[in-house]
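for the writeup, i need someone to sanity check this before i put it in the appendix. the sequnce is what the collaborator sent (i think, or maybe the updated version? ugh). structure was predicted straight from it, no edits. if anything looks off just tell me and ill rerun, i have time this weekend
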Amino acid sequence: MGNSNPAQYKLNIKELQQFQDIISSVTNLFMFCVGSDGNRITEMSGDPLETKRILGLVDENQMISVIGRVLGTSLEEQVIEDTAYPNVKIASIGVTMGTMPAFCWFICGVLDNEDGENAVLNIHTVTSEANFNKSIDLIREASSKLYSDVPSEEAKTTRSSVDNETEDIMKSYKKSQSMAEIISLLDSDDSFDVISQKIINYASKYAGITHAYMLRLITEDKVELMAQYEKDGVFSLDREFEEIPIDILHSLGDRPTVISYKTQIEPAQRRWLDIMSLSAMIVMPILYNHKPTMYLFFADTDPDKEWSIDDTKFFGDAVRVLRNIMARRLQKNSITSSYKSLEAILDNVGSAIYVRDTESGNILFANRMCKSTFMQEMRNGTLENLFEKGARSSLATSYMEVEYPEKKRWYDLNTTYIEWVDGRRVCMNSIFDVTDKKMYQQKIEQQANNDFLTGLYNRMCCERDLTRHIDEAKAAGETGAIIYLDLDDFKHINDGLGHQYGDVLLKAISNSLRRINGIENTCYRMGGDEFVIIVPHESYRNFDRIKEEIQIVFNKPWFLKGADYYCTASIGIVTFPEDGDTVQDLVKKADVAMYEAKKSGKNKISIYSKEADADSSRRLDMEKSMRFATAGGYKEFEVYFQPIVDVKKSGNPCVGAEALVRWNSSDLGFVSPGDFIPLAEYLGLINPIGNYVLEQACLALKYWNESGHPYYKVNVNLSVVQLLQNDIVETIEEIIKRTGINPKNLTLEVTESLAINDMVRMKRIISNIKKLGVKIALDDFGTGYSSLNHIREIPLDVIKVDQTFVKGLATDEFAQAFVSMIGELATALGVKICVEGIETIEQYKVLEKMNVSMIQGFYFGKPMPRSEFEEKFL
């Protein structure tokens, strides 16, 4: 097994090593990390001599096998195997980022059972089988939360919260294990000095402090050092504590004292701490006959050390155990006295504790908290079944989490097998209520899986669920589907009404979608205004009904800000496993189908096809070329001009032109406006392109006006997206000033669809534009939803009749009547009328008899480059 190049995975090796070392020290396991290429990227945690021996004991082929099973193509996330040695077990845990394995942990545990032939002996870092299994679960859960992929902004918040939660889990685990070890000393036959040393070691290692000392008062003015703990690599203070000034000791009194760098203490005490270079200290006196006989000092050199409530409580619990042991030793001939001392200490340890006889099953002892919390269960005899069901008997400590659904509570259970005060072998169970922590953990998980705004599942959850639905459909030999949904012109709602109303709309749409029978639990918000709906194979038989109900959702208006607004959707559909059997492939194809729906006019449903996939490749090429063209100063975008003639004047003179954008791509050649304009809107590039066209048209207009045609006018289209920009009026004004044109010769064309939503805002914007001296034309009249009342309200100068109404103008009476009516309407409103799309002399002759002043169409000239236009009409 060689060394891996961790950079390719973007993993923080230092962070992995730190996480690994913490887990290893807490669980007494040997472990190292392996990259996705099968190479080790961290050193094995543990004592160097023991790790070397472990690596020599474990068969390399077996090691490679268990690692390969979680890093390979199988679905295994975790593997546990026995080895050739009865007390050695190995495991591997895979961690994925997205859908691909990122790395795995290789773990080895030496069990404390040395019985059996060929058992490994003389290893000090040992664990129990129950602890080994529980530790594997802990490592898997913590790794999954810490290192799995999440969306960018949500990922930072979620990662920080999960880091804290994982630290809490390990700290709770370590605290429970340390307290269980301390409590187990109640039955130890070791000397009091040895027990004191062990308790100081357990408490100090749990708290992570640098120094701890236990002093015994021999006389009024003399002390003895009984036990000490000094963290590896720190300076020793045993002599300083043996020579502690008696007045300092007496000043501490008979109550616990907590000192940090912020604590106000006597100057003599502060000088004493400074001499010893200690910044924080907790002093716990041990009383006998109401007088201090011993003192425990827990200290640290960290200048910013502040003691937590958990620290002081843990030290207090440890001292109470030690005090109880001292009392037992002084009265060891009195079992009754010992039991009362034990009862007193266990009544105040901050957790529910009960002791059960392993042979009879009878509960021998329950502390005050246990009796008050589980009184009914103790009466019914269900306490053992609730907490010990499925637990395995062991000589060591076991740890498990227990859910109590009836009370909606969660508990951490520590089980330790000890000898009771009368010599019987008993099971001592410590129960910690972790409901608040569990609920917080569930909240973090919900934030990781759900969209904060709508409550729908998010992209990460969609990819996970889609993998499962694909596998289920393949196993059942049936079909499922993905519906990819993108709201049409949602930006108009957001910009027009404000983001708060856009959020209201997104929540309303989400609620409507998940009320559809068959997809209640498979609706996802992918981000922005995009949604994915998975139709599971069991609901696919109702697929047509589901599609119809989705369309109904978007056919009705939404009530926002006191009025009805329409918001349609473009929908792409792909089936699985027919069209693909991987998440990435299916989502990509559904997106391709959705874009086809949007390109074909929006508010449509498009089924994925291979032809659309080919168009998608061209779309990607167009997107790349368009970004290149915009980054290069828009030189590839050419402005063409189509003449507008005045048919009421003799000779039908040209009075101006409409500026139309064309894209002559250096890579793709000429691209149809019907292809690239929707793409520009989709990519958010329509604003800069539109501003460029406006400026080029104004430059041409300036030249024409100064070259003998002072009354020539130019028409420029403004897209809906441009009009909704907050600075659109300022942008137009700046271009007018920069080019120096007469604003009266500039006509800006807006589409009729603007009248659908927020008429008040449109009137305000258009009025502000007209204040610049610019004229306004209503383009494509007759194709939108506007009422005649809206037309009357908008301050217009020109109405342009869409070419769809003039194709049959020569013979179609309806078309003739429509154009004639619009002419009369224009006269009544005091505006001019311009008819687009005139291609034949017959159409032209019909218009001569009507109240039409301006005509535009191929009959007089197609859109042409500026140079050609100027040669022909200037």
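The first helix runs from residue 13 to 27. The CA atoms of residues 93 and 698 lie 66 Å apart.
thx in advance!!
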